[in-house]
Amino acid sequence: xxxxxxxxxxxxxxxxxxxxxxxxxxxxxxxxxxxxxxxxxxxxxxxxxxxxxxxxxxxxxxxxxxxxxxxxxxxxxxxxxxxxxxxxxxxxxxxxxxxxxxxxxxxxxxxxxxxxxxxxxxxxxxxxxxxxxxxxxxxxxxxxxxxxxxxxx
Length: 153
Known about the structure:
153 residues; mainly alpha; elongated
């Protein structure tokens, strides 16, 4: 498994931002309404990103194999690495999409629905960025070392 390239995540986010922007523009052109963005999208992404960051902070000593801690078994460490990969891609996809929706909704910011879509989309994009950052931090701690396999308790 290779480390995640930040450039790949940026490309994914840009593609989804273009899709979100286009869908919002099409909807606004057809119905004169902006794409509704639920406030829970921002909240859920912030909770996921923050929770993963907090969990990474507390698991860091075990993942780094610091003295006095029992390292995770190899299979658990591999699952943690897969979680980090999934989190970075998910945050990039969802954050990019909502960034595009937020940018497209700026033109209707003078209406309550446009204001809500712009702000909630922006906050959801920030939540996606938090999820990406937490996932990349977790992934950086899951680097395989040449110390051999650990004993399972």
